[in-house]
Structure formats: C-alpha cells, structure tokens
C-alpha cells in the first residue's frame, strides 16, 4: 500500500523533473497566417459609409479597437514575477510604470490614459497562454505589452494573432517572431538571439582575428539556444567554434561545462543566459581555472552581474543590441532619472528595464501617429511609418516598414571596466 | 586523472546540498509521515536572514548565522504548531501535505515582498568564497571546503542526535511503529515538533552554506529542494543514510553525464537514470523492501 | 474508588460503532480476563483504555480519575501500561533500545534498575541486547514486550492476546511466569482467545461478542470445562 503510493509519487516527481528539464523544447509554431484579412473589410465599410454622409467625413464614426475607450487604452503583460527570472519581470514592470506615468502625466495620448494589467507566468509557457486568454477574453485588452520570454511568448503568440491582438516590444528573441507574414501584429526593438551571436562572431574576428582563437558556446538547451548557436555559425567566426555546451533551467552548477571548455582550450566563451547565472558562471570559471575571454548575452548586462561577481566580472564582455543602462547619453539619462524617481534600485537599472522603457518610447510614438481613431489597423500602419526614430542613443536609430517590424538590427559590444559596463563599439548590421 | 577527480569533487559539492535537503525531508517523513513541501523555501529564508542580519543590520557574520538559525528553529516551531498539528489530529496524509504547500506559497511571497526578486551576493568574511587553491592540478575553492566541512559536521550532529539522545530514540521508535511508541509513553507531539525543528535547522544550514555558491535569490533553494526530493526517493525515503547517499549519487550523476553524454541528453539523463532505478527498485536503492510493509 | 471502572463504553472507527455500551470493573490488584472470539472487540476495548482510541460515549475511570480519551503518554505516566497484540517490538532497534523506549522520559537510574530485573528474568535478552529486535524469535520478542512493561512499572497492566502466533507450550510458560514478573498488587486486564489459559490465571472474566458483553462470571465456575464458554463466544445455545 505504502510502497505503491511511493511509486506513484516518485513517478510524478520524475515526470515533473523531466518537464522542468525540457519544458521549452516543444516547437509548436504552426502559426495562423490567415489572421489579417480585417484591413480590407474595414476600409470597405468606411467607404460605404462615407458615401451616405459626405458632409462630415472628419466626424467619421470610428469603431475603436477592443480595449480602447475615449479616455483609456488597456494593455496586458505576462511576466515572470516569481521563479528564477522574477528580477527581470520586476524590472520590466517598473519601466512600464514609468512609461505609463510619463504619458498619463502629460495628459495621455489623444486624451486617452494608458493602463496595464500584469499577470505572473513564472516563465511557464502554459501560464503565459492562460494569462493571454485572461487578458483577451476577460479584460478585453488592446494589446499585450513588454512580456518577457521567448518560449513563453512562442506559446501565446498564436492566440494573440488569432484574436487580432498586437504583441508589443517583448523581451523575446525567437527568430520566427520576426516573420511579418506570420505575425503581422508583432513589433519589437529587440533582435533575436540569432542576430546577437552573428554580430558577436563578426566582432570577434574583426577585433581579435582568427589566429589561435577557439570559441566555446554555452546556451540554454532549447530552441532559443539552437538559434543562438546557428547565429554564431553563420558569422565570419563560425569556423572557430570548438565546444558547444548547454545549460538547463534547473542547473545548480556549470562546473562540468566549464571543465569541458578547459579541455577544449577555448580562448573565448559566449554565455547565453541571465545576469545571476552569468555571475555564477564567472565564479565557477575562476574556481576551475578557465582562462578565457567571457562574452555574455543581452541578459547578462546588468549592474547585478557586477554586484554578484565582483572583481571576477572585470573585463567580461557583453554582446548587446542596446547601450548599457548605466551609460551617459541623453536617452539613458532620461531613463535613469525616471526610473529612480519611480523608486528603482541600482540593480534594476538594467537591460530588461531599459528594453521595456525603449519599447515604451516607440509605443507612445505609434499611438500618437495612429491618431484619434485608434484601431488595430491604424496602429499597425502608424508603426510602419516610423523611420530614423531617435531614442537618445539608447539604440541606433530605429526603422520600421511593412516588411520589417524589428526596429533595431545593430550590435553593440560592452565591457566591464572598473566595475561598470562601458560601451566599446557600435557594430554594423 | 585529475580531471576526473575535479569532476567528482564538483559533483560532490552539489551532492552535499541534495543530501542535506534529502536528509531533512526523510527525517520528517520517517517520523511523522509528512512530506514537507516547504522545506526548500524555509531553507532559503534561513539564508536570507543570515544575509540580512549581517549585511543590513551590521551584525558579525557568525552572530547573524546564529540569529538566523534561532529564527529558523523558532519559526518552524510556530509553523508546526499553527498549521500542521491541528491537521495531524484529523489523521489524513493529504491535507497536511497540501498545508505544507500552502506554507511554502506563503513564505515564498513573504520573502519576495521583503527581499524582492533581485539576486544578492552573500558576503563571507575575507571573501573566502573567491579564494582558490591549486593542489597539483586539482583546484580547490576555499568555500567548497567550508561546505564539505559543514556538511560533515551537520551529518555528525544529526547522527549523534538520532543515535545517542532520547529525542533520537523517540524519533526512531515513531518511525518504526507509531502506536507502539505511543504505548511506551512517547508524546507524539513532542517528537514531531522537535523533528520538524531539527529538519528545518538542517535545511537552514544548507540554505546558508550554499548562499555564496548559488547567490541569494527568491526560490534559490527550490531547485535544491526538488533534487533533494529525488535524492530521498533514490534512498527509499525511509532511510536517513539512504537520503544522504542518494543526494551524493545524484550530484555525481549530474556531473559525469554532462561530461560523457551527448549534450541534448546530458541534463535529462540523471532523471532518466533515477526513473529506471525506481522501476527496478521502487523502494529505492538503500532500503530493503521489507522496510515499507508494516502490518 | 480504586481500580478500573468502565461504564457504558461505546467506541467506533469513524461512523462504524464497534463497542456498543460495555461495563467492566477490575478492582485494585484483581486479575480479570476479557474473552471472546476473533473480532468481538476485545482489542478495541484495550486500545481505548490505553488511549489509542477515543470513546464516543461512556466513561473510563482509573483510581477515580476519568481517563477516557486521555493522551497515551499521560496514561503511561499514570501507570496504565499495555502489552500490545503481536508484541509490537521495534524491529530495527536493538533489544536494549527497545527497553530504553519503555523508560522514555524517566530517569536513567530507574532504567538501570529495571534492566537488571529484566535481564535476571530473561538472560537471553541480555545475551542479545545489541541485536535488532526484528531478528529475535517470536518467544524472545514476547519476552521483550513483557520486559518493556516491567520496566514501565505498571499499576494497571493491559495484556493483549499473548497467545497470538506463539507455540501453545510457550504461551503456557508465559502465563505461568506472569505472577513472577509483576507484583501482586498490579491490576490486570488481559485479553485472550484461549479461555483455558486465561481462566487459570484470572479470578474473573468477561465475554465479549460483537461489541456487547454476553457473560461475566468467576473463573472457578468454568475452569474445569472451558469449552462450555463456546456458546457464549459464538452465540449459539449449547
């Protein structure tokens, strides 16, 4: 009797572990491509109406999008508020609050105030999907804004598309998101991991040559990780790759991977991970004597990496698509001022919050350009008109078009120097 | 050769964490027949408390740890009396397990509210967690040595309590036969509460000693909890030494599978091995089948 | 009012009532047997007296104090000691630890004293004191179980089905030894299926059938022909 109960519990526990281990591997990306046929029908209806009442075309009845009223626009945001990535979720939400308050304190956009609802998904794709259902069906939001996570968004995106809900400025980098045909309502300023590692490989060869260079990659064991590896292989430094290692979300140590890197004699290690894990990686690399240049992905570039790793972070590189949150540029200064005014801690001045903040700048511009009659169509069309958008130096100027909803394609390399992230070079394409 | 010793050592250090949490879980299960799902979070709070008193209240490092341990013990005492004890009287297994899940959720939220979601560094005197010694080709981190010593001392103390004290005798008697133990005049509630406290203190030590290794983070002990759970299952869940051995074994499995297995399978392999072990020996590696069947 | 007095006792497991109002009295120092067929409810009555079960109705007093529903540990402190059915030694603990458990919460000096007594009566236990109790033979386990009761210094001793699973000859030996093991003034209530043995040792007895008392009498009336009790056990007319 008892041993049977235990067998059951054991099996559950083991299945649970397997789920944790490979939860984000399912690539269910049959996206719905037949979702955006509403544009033509709406223009038909407006033309038929304008023939009936020609005197007042300006006073045109406008059918506002779901979640939009005369004085309010409602957004939803699914964030990891618990679990390993909770810190990122907190940072993103704070930046969203800063954006909301800036817009609302300035009287809103076309008289409409911004509001948003946050739901925790703990970086669990199933919860992200149920959150999306809740936002769309219960709360009737206009759009999903600034959610964090590729695996999570990938699960929820078909639902966004089907329900004609824009997906705006997430921190999510799956390559498939940027296919405008499949996801016409997706807007981002955050390039996929593929573009980051490609930029890294190009930068490495350009600045350190190929002589004696051996590269190790450490990526999460998931589709994200595979795209990261592919991006590197497609760069000019692709042939220098000698060791590919993966980590899992339930890893407690990177020691074995580091020992493998030592075995392979790598000179450069690229680690695609978050700040806490990168700090732990640097700590363990030092413990085990891995002598190499360390390159961290976007997620590693935060004050927290330096706080946690201390001196061990000195000299580490960060591969980014965005300036260091602590840099000195007009856009960054404004960002920090607003964040601190909203009660941010030093550690929350991070790429996560800066990305959400920058997305907020573009969002404000899109809403403004969309005008008083805010529909999903007018909103998307407005976004596609944005060219050379100046973020005050946070990113290179942003460009959107009907074919390209990713505003930002350029790589920036940073390095920890004297206990702070410093920007080295603005790379090209 | 040294390479293998290095891998084995790294696995052992992780294994220490799994072993201690496995031990804490088995202790409560064996004596009180309760699965404590809050064990990981409780251990994490001990780590946060030690950090908080040292870093934010300027207490000396050792005093802060002492305070954290006292708080852990006292807090557990209160939690057991308030949440578990009233349900024990009802006599069902499931409500108590669900209650520990509730306690877990509550404590996780408290710690999130108090300390936020941002990871923190737990500073140790002289930053010895950043000191590494080279012994031949073998590299030894000073704090890993502290972890090993702490684990050894903790296991010794627990061993002493179990085998040499009246509390230990009561725990063993309860583990073997609850009714007979009651008929011998052993107070169930007394044995139960001190078992909880002892278990929480073992967890607390784990949370504190691994804080410099994993960084203090909301939920940082939850992964350790899950692996400690697996360790306990490997050990048969009714054997204290089995839980410890299961933890060390799991640590080694993880370390060596990453070395040898193809990278796609490396992470899942330890779990698969555990799964196979359980199919062959559902009662775990270290318990005789007999131990489970009681008339 | 000294001794054990049970009045209108009702006990059940959940909604299922097993004992339907039973009155039993055992005067101080008296030896009384509770007889009945398998499943008649004898063990339930003992478990209720020793606090493992809580009465749904009725009262149990010992030396005037109400003890119905009391904590087993508190009852042990009062001297209410049960030798459980099936011996219930702790199989993983060694012999000496098993005995130590019987002295739980009491002074170690008392234990040394008790240990001496026990080892004198059962030298085999001393020989095997470091051996796991689970490895002892059935007879030795019964010795150990009785020894635990000796160490606990009972005032009211409850012995549940000593004959269970033991060779009849061995059981007989134990019964003959009982008077030697415990002092004269210990009040005894013993549960037994084997009436012949019980009647020899006890002065009075009760017979329980399906949770009701069906007979009580002095042992001497039946001692020559215990089979006459069969009808009371089984509820058929002789």
Compact description:
The complex is a heterotrimer of chains A (429), B (295) and C (238). With 429 residues, chain A is of the alpha/beta class.
Number of strands of chain C: 10
Number of strands of chain B: 2
Radius of gyration of chain C: 18 Å
Averaged pLDDT of chain B: 89
Most strands sheet of chain C: 6 strands, mixed
Shape label of chain B:
globular
CATH top level label of chain B: Mainly Alpha
Q: Which stretches of chain C of 5+ consecutive residues score pLDDT under 50?
A: none
* Most extensive chain interface and residues per partner: A-B, 57 and 59 residues
Explain what this protein looks like in three dimensions.
- The complex is a heterotrimer of chains A (429), B (295) and C (238).
- Chain A has 13 helices and 12 strands.
- Chain A has helices spanning 2-22, 38-52, 86-105, 125-138, 150-162, 193-208, 223-233, 255-264, 275-288, 303-309, 330-341, 351-370, 376-384; strands spanning 72-79, 113-120, 143-145, 167-168, 186-187, 215-220, 241-247, 268-271, 293-296, 317-320, 412-417, 420-426.
- In chain A, the strands form 2 sheets. Chain A has a 7-stranded mixed β-sheet with strand order 7-6-8-9-10-11-12, sandwiched between helices. In chain A, strands 2-1-3-4-5 form a 5-stranded parallel β-sheet, with helices on both faces.
- In chain A, strand 3 (143-145), helix 5 (150-162) and strand 4 form a beta-alpha-beta unit.
- In chain A, helix 3 (86-105) runs parallel beside helix 12, helix 6 packs parallel to helix 7 (223-233) and helix 9 (275-288) runs parallel beside helix 10.
- Chain A starts with a helix and ends with a strand.
- Chain B has helices spanning 2-32, 39-56, 61-88, 93-115, 142-164, 166-176, 178-183, 188-209, 211-214, 222-234, 240-260, 263-266, 269-280; strands spanning 132-135, 138-141.
- In chain B, strand 1 (132-135) and strand 2 (138-141) form a beta hairpin.
- Chain C is an alpha/beta fold and 238 residues long.
- Chain C has one domain (4-234): Rossmann fold.
- Helix content of chain C is 34%, strand content 26%.
- Chain C has helices at 42-49, 72-78, 95-102, 108-121, 123-127, 138-151, 168-181, 195-201, 230-234; strands at residues 4-13, 16-26, 31-36, 57-62, 65-66, 80-83, 156-160, 187-192, 204-209, 212-218.
- In chain C, strand 7, helix 7 and strand 8 (187-192) form a beta-alpha-beta unit.
- The longest helix of chain C has 14 residues, at 108-121.
- The interface between A and B is large, with 57 and 59 residues.
């Amino acid at each position: 009797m008892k041993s049977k109960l235990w067998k059951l519990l054991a099996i559950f526990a083991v299945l649970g572990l397997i789920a944790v281990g490979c939860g984000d591997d399912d690539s269910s990306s049959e996206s719905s491509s037949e979702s955006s046929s509403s544009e033509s029908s709406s223009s038909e209806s407006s033309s038929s109406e304008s023939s009936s009442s020609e005197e007042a075309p300006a006073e045109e009845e406008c059918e506002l999008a779901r979640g939009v009223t005369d004085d309010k626009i409602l957004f939803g945001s699914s964030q990891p508020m618990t679990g390993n990535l909770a810190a990122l979720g907190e940072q993103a939400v704070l930046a969203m609050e800063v954006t909301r308050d800036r817009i609302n304190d300035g009287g809103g956009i076309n008289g409409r105030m911004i509001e948003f609802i946050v739901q925790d998904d703990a970086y669990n794709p199933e919860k992200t999907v149920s959150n999306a259902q809740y936002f769309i069906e219960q709360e009737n939001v206009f759009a999903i804004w600034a959610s964090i996570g590729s695996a999570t968004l990938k699960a929820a995106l078909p639902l966004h598309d089907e329900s004609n809900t824009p997906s705006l400025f997430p921190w999510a980098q799956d390559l498939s998101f940027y296919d405008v045909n499949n996801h016409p309502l997706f807007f981002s300023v955050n390039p996929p991991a593929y573009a980051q590692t490609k930029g890294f490989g190009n930068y490495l060869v350009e600045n350190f040559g190929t002589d004696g260079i051996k590269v190790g990659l450490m990526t999460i064991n998931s589709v994200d990780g595979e795209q990261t590896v592919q991006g590197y292989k497609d760069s000019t430094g692709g042939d220098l790759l000698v060791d590919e290692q993966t980590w899992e979300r339930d890893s407690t140590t990177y020691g074995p991977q580091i020992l493998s890197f030592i075995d392979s004699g790598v000179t450069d290690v690229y680690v695609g991970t978050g700040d806490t894990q990168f700090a732990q990686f640097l700590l363990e690399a030092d413990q085990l004597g891995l002598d190499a240049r360390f390159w961290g992905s976007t997620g590693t570039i935060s004050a927290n990496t330096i706080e946690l790793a201390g001196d061990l972070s000195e000299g580490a590189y960060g591969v980014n698509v965005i300036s260091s949150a602590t840099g000195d540029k007009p856009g960054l200064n404004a960002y920090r001022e607003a964040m601190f005014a909203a009660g941010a801690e030093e550690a929350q001045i991070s790429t996560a919050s800066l990305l959400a903040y920058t997305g907020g700048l573009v969002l404000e511009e899109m809403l403004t350009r969309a005008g008083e009659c805010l529909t999903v169509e007018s909103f998307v069309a407005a976004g596609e008109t944005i060219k050379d958008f100046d973020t005050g130096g946070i990113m290179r100027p942003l460009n959107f078009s009907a074919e390209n909803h990713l505003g930002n394609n350029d790589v920036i390399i940073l390095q920890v120097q004297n206990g702070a992230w410093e920007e080295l070079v603005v790379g090209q394409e | 050769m040294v390479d293998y010793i290095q891998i084995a050592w790294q696995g052992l250090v992780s294994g220490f964490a799994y072993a201690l949490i496995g031990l804490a879980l088995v202790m409560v299960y064996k004596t009180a027949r309760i699965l404590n799902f809050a064990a990981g979070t409780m251990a994490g709070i001990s780590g946060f408390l030690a950090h908080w008193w040292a870093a934010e209240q300027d207490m000396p490092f050792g005093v802060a740890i002492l305070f954290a341990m006292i708080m852990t013990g006292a807090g557990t005492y209160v939690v057991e009396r308030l949440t578990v004890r009233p349900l024990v009287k009802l006599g069902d297994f499931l409500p108590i397990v669900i209650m520990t899940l509730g306690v877990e959720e509550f404590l996780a939220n408290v710690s999130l509210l108090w300390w936020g979601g941002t990871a923190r560094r737990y500073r140790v005197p002289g930053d010895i967690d950043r000191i590494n010694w080279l012994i031949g080709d073998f590299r030894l981190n000073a704090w890993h040595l502290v972890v090993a010593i702490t684990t050894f001392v903790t296991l010794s103390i627990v061993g002493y309590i179990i085998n040499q004290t009246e509390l230990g005798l009561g725990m063993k008697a309860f583990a073997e036969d609850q009714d007979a133990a009651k008929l011998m005049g052993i107070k169930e509630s007394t044995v139960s509460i001190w078992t909880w406290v002892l278990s929480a203190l073992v967890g607390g030590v784990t949370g504190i000693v691994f804080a410099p290794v994993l960084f203090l983070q909301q939920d940082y002990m939850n992964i350790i909890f899950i692996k400690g759970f697996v360790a306990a299952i490997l050990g048969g869940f009714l054997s204290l030494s089995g839980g410890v051995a299961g933890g060390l074994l799991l640590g080694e499995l993880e370390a060596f599978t990453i070395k040898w297995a193809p990278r796609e399978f490396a992470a899942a392999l330890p779990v698969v091995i555990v799964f196979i072990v359980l199919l062959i020996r559902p009662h775990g590696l270290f318990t005789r089948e007999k131990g489970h069947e009681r008339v | 009012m000294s001794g054990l007095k049970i009045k209108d006792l009702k006990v059940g497991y959940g909604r299922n009532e097993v004992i339907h109002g039973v009155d039993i009295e055992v005067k101080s120092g008296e030896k009384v047997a509770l007889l009945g067929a398998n499943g008649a409810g004898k063990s339930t009555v003992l478990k209720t007296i020793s606090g493992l079960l809580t009465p749904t109705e009725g009262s149990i007093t010992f030396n005037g104090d109400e003890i119905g529903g009391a904590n087993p540990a508190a009852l042990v402190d009062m001297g209410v000691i049960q030798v459980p059915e099936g011996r219930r030694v702790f199989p993983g603990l060694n012999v000496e630890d098993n005995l130590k458990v019987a002295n739980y919460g009491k002074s170690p000096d008392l234990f040394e004293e008790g240990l001496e007594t026990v080892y004198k009566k059962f030298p085999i236990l001393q020989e095997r004191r470091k051996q796991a109790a689970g490895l002892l033979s059935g007879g030795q386990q019964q010795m150990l179980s009785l020894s635990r009761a000796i160490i606990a210094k009972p005032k009211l001793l409850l012995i549940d089905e000593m004959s269970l699973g033991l060779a009849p000859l061995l059981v007989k030996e134990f019964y003959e030894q009982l008077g030697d093991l415990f002092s004269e003034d210990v009040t005894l209530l013993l549960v037994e299926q084997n009436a012949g043995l019980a009647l020899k040792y006890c002065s009075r007895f009760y017979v329980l059938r399906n949770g009701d008392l069906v007979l009580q009498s002095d042992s001497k009336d039946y001692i020559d022909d215990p089979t006459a009790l069969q009808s009371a056990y089984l509820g058929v007319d002789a």
